[in-house]
Please model this.
Amino acid sequence: MKSKMLGAIVIDEDRCKGCSECVVACPVDAIEISGLKINASGYAYAQPSAKADCCTGCTSCAVVCPDGCITVYRKKVTIDEPNKEGREARS
Model:
């Protein structure tokens, strides 16, 4: 069995100004700008994308956020050997 780090992104949508710095900084495209949704301040805010499960917990997004709106949590998970279909089993 192997282990690897996964991340979880939490964005304070009410404070986000939609500058897109986090979107550019993310190496796995785990963050996107909401598009038509806006927060109470009138900004289209950052949100986890459809690829958020690919987050590695690198914290690049949180480091570049000028308003400190992003928190990244890291979790070590154990990866089983590939099963018969060639997929990895996560625990």
